[in-house]
Write a structure and sequence with these properties.
The structure holds 2 protein chains of 2 kinds.
Chain A (H helix, E strand, L loop, with lengths): L2 E9 L2 E6 L5 E6 L5 H16 L2 H9 L4 H4 L11 E11 L2 E14 L2 E12 L6 E8 L2 E5 L14 E5 L7 H5 L6 H12 L1 E3 L3 H4 L18 H11 L1 H14 L5 E6 L5 E6 L7 E2 L5 H13 L7 E5 L9 H14 L3 E5 L3 H5 L6 E7 L2 E6 L4 H8 L4 H7 L5 H4 L3
Parallel strand pairs in A: 3-15, 3-16, 10-14, 14-15
Antiparallel strand pairs in A: 1-2, 1-4, 4-5, 5-6, 6-7, 7-8, 8-9, 11-12, 12-13, 16-17
Helix pairs in contact in A: 1-2, 7-8, 9-10
Chain B lengths: L1 H11 L17 H14 L7 E6 L5 H13 L5 E6 L4 H5 L2 H7 L21 H9 L4 H8 L11 H15 L3
Parallel strand pairs in B: 1-2
Helix pairs in contact in B: 2-3
Classes of the chains: A alpha+beta, B mainly alpha.
Chain lengths: 403, 174
Amino acid sequence: MVVEEIRIENFKALKNVRLSHIPPVSVFVGRNGTGKTTLFRVFAFLKECLRTNVDVALRQEGGRRGFSEVITRGCDLETDSIVLEIKFRLEIAGRERLVTYQLDIGQEDGEAVVRREILRYKRGRHGSPFHFIDFRGGSGTAVSNEEDFNRPDEELDREEQKLSSPTTLAIKGLGQFERFKAAKSFRQLIENWHISDIHIDAARGVKPPDEGEHVSSRGENLPSVAWRLHRKHPEIFKEICQKMAERVPGVEEVIAKEMDDGSLLIRYRDGAFEESFLDFNVSDGTVKMFAYLLLLHDPKPHKILCVEEPENQLYPELMVLLAEEFQDYARRGGQVFISTHSPEFLNAMKVKSIFLLEKEQGLTKVYRAVDDPLVSGLMEDGDKAGYLWDQGTFTGIGHRISS
Amino acid sequence: MEVTLRELLKRLHPELQEGDGFFIQSFSGKSDLEKNIPKRMGNWSYGDPTFVILRDADGGDCKVIKERLVNLARASGKPFRVRIVCQQLESWFLGDGEAVKSAFPRAVISNETRKYRNPDLLSNASDELGLVTGDYSKVARARLISPHLTEEGNRSGSFQVLCRTFRELLVSRI
């Protein structure tokens, strides 16, 4: 598990949201419009800030008007900032430390800028915070001998750096260089933060070879991933087929086939027939389930995975399998963020994994189920979260949790 | 029913917050309800609520149903009331013609309509309400009519009993 805490300020309806004690598997539930998608968009936003810059990311998120659309309504466009803060675990000088990344985005003269960007570590209760990176509006300092961070401040090698633009992230610029290890690590963390959004139609059909060995965000490279997995890790591929056979009616075997011209496709064999079916002729749910299994059994898995409403197109009994697969993925070291409307999926979750979102006066509030004496009490006595959710027990959680 | 109860409690007691001052637990059908009564009541450890168990008779024998639910609830040792709506929730709406008219202005109904003089005796209140309003969606009707329901003048006995129950329970808390 990597990410411990996420704090968001002034990002659309998330005016002031803090997720703390984030477990390996986090499941977000809430009515439509409570902000679940916005929360997941924060992850995508951060990725885009890194991939290009904050200006592009803001336009992607807010349309042409960018910043003014993304910052929470009611904020002062000239003085207020969108703030994202992530606390994560990082190994420095042989030990795992809790490091904080903070990004403040504002608008100056109508242009989006990174007001402040800090990567810091608190050296115990008595030490001053150690800033690996400290940038304002495109320039700042970065420490290049992090392994010596136990030394007093004067002995640290701080380099003055200027970025190509005040819209670029320092971790992007610096993260390319070996000597800025913390920046590099965090950059890799964000780059590797996988947001899964399987587009079933895009996943079907004949595909070119060499489309990679990790399931892409939209899943359109399924044949390539399946083909490679089958060749390099046949035992894993077999396990996946077995799970499909057990849970998906009519799928005894999945075959990744190479055509004469080198292109790839997937066929599904129903035990009842000799000929296998082209993936155009199997249900959406079958393709999606296969995609998730490939994603979750990736021999080189993503450290962080986000999935919105995995239950779409999948029949309720598959939810138990899917829930187990996500939990297994977490047990192997991954961290997962999931949003759901499925009571069956929720039933398989432990109380500490559940976050409930509510909208109060147009702003999103996030509550942990574990903090709710009613829900956590009932779950302790054996009641399942999905049933409780369905029965209305979560209603009013905000009134029961004293801040 | 959940929709109607929420509206009712919101109006009878606007000072109470759902989830803290009162709670609504909805179950899917009678066996789901019965299965959950002993567990939910027994394990409830937030506040010290009185459990009001509410069910439509919907064709069954009101007395028999009540007795069965009472037996299930008694085992928990917690305070409770069992109220059976004879026969369907929609009797409450038919008992308040003005409320129906407020929600459906073209409905031909009033608080004097002879046919609905004793709405609790109707075996098919839901169908009747459909005929009167032209709307056959239970949830939509509940959403539209419930905000207009009033206790006084409602000709449904079971509705009067429920309102009285809520009043008694909530007064005894003060």
